Amino acid sequence: MAITPCCTCPFPRTKPPPLRLKLRQPERGHGSFPTGRKFPFYYLMVENNNYHVCILCSGNSSFGLLNTSSAVIQVETAKSYSISMKNVVINVSVEDRKKIIFEQSNALAESVNGQILIPKGLLDEVVNLVEAPFPVLGKFKETFLDLLKDLLTMVMQKHQKYFAVCDANGQLLPYFVAVANGAIDETTVRKGNEAVLWARYEDAKFFYEMDTCKRFSEFRKQLKNILFHEKLGTMLDKMTRVENMVTKLSCLLDINEDVQQIIRDASSLAMSVLATAVVTEFTSLSGIMGRHYALRDGYSDQIAEALLEITLPRFSGDILPKSDADIVLAIADRLDSLLGLFTAGCQPSSTNDPFGLRRISYGLVDKGVNAEFVRSILVERANFPCLAAKSAYKVKTMSEYEYDPISWKNYLKEPFPKVVEAYSWPTRIVRGKEDELHMEVDETAFVTNEESVLCGTFLSVKKSINPGFGIDDFAEISCQLIQPLEDFFNNVFVMVDDDKIRVNRLALLKGIVELPKGIADLTVLPGF
């Protein structure tokens, strides 16, 4: 959103509101140091679908660490900002803070003959939680090392944002590194973090001991108490569907009987881990704990691995299932989720995908098809159900031939998203005014060239479109409207005071809005 100092900050009058900015921390102020003047910043706040413009004035004040005497400081110029903040022990450079955290944490780990474990994203998260990083080495009881390594590191990293410490062989050591902020009493902070981690580990130990009091297979019956979806039943219902599906898939894929038995045994345990206490608390460990509990109860390595790999891939770039048993089980689980949730009306929108259906779709095709061109289809088209059949056909077609990024580049381009956006602009303007727009468009009432061009294009497109058109033909012809509509909205104000001109412009837009009727109801899509 553009910010204009000392004046009203208008938003484009015919296009969607600016993107909303979400901040991790509450915003207390802005700094601006050009001439010592205060500049107002205008924000569009959204509350109950109503838009409000709010103002936050800037100044040359900034904030030091809140627990110091220099909580508020004055900054003379933009060039002196970094130095001024450094004088109050705040490092404004993300890269410098990251370097300090990494080097000092590693040094602390080396002091106990170890090295820190830094999973993807944790360092980036921690560096933005502190302004003056101060790593502290802590220790926990060695008896906790009897618990699963993944469980211990999950508690440290997810809940406490600590770095785990391991030896040269990757074995966990009874140490951790916490990153404090600013000047601290190191002993007090260390003891405080050790006490918190001790409590967390006691909880994890309690959950684990609860789970190991019974055999893994006994958790299956508890799945009837876990709802998958109100229209699709419980997790036990889902597990039963997956069991039936893997039998059919195994036959279709002509998998040998020995592997089929592994698949059947694994499918009977596949969801049971979701009823365990550990996974209830740490959901992301479902695959790891499923494998662990299966091995503990004497199941074969193949069955245990299948219970892990049914959850793969867990994130972009993650490893994929490898064996036939793992692949069949993973595909059955994803097919059940994907088809069931779409049937239940849970398809993702442009801003919301609570069930992770896009990730499930990628996971389904990731094994046999290069992910890059799958994404270029699904990411662009996932929100247009009317194109689902053609998207599936494209995936099938491309999976049958060798992937060549250059040759597929044009094949993947689609005009539909741009066409939808173009139709959304007039739709939002005429909504609620349809009853008063009964007049025909009067071309003699046009004032601007953009009106005439848009009207001419509209009439041409209208003659070419008929209700028997398919989506692709409709989108291709409608492409002619994209540029005239953009020029119209950039240069023409619709809601003028002159009644004749205003109603005539609205009538033109209403005619454009009605073009898709009988072909597609675009209003059900995001943006309308």
From TrEMBL:
- What are the protein's GO molecular function terms? ATP binding; glycine-tRNA ligase activity
Q: Under which EC number(s) is this enzyme classified? A: 6.1.1.14
Q: What class of enzyme is it?
A: ligase
Q: Which reaction does it catalyse?
A: tRNA(Gly) + glycine + ATP = glycyl-tRNA(Gly) + AMP + diphosphate
Entry's InterPro entries? Gly-tRNA-synth_bsu, Gly-tRNA-synth_heterodimer
GO CC annotation: what is one? chloroplast stroma
GO biological process entries: glycyl-tRNA aminoacylation
The UniProt keywords, alphabetically, are:
Aminoacyl-tRNA synthetase, ATP-binding, Ligase, Nucleotide-binding, Protein biosynthesis
Family designation: Belongs to the class-II aminoacyl-tRNA synthetase family.
The family database entries (PANTHER family) matched by this protein are listed as:
GLYCINE--TRNA LIGASE, CHLOROPLASTIC_MITOCHONDRIAL 2 (PTHR30075:SF2), GLYCYL-TRNA SYNTHETASE (PTHR30075)
Q: What is this protein called?
A: glycine--tRNA ligase
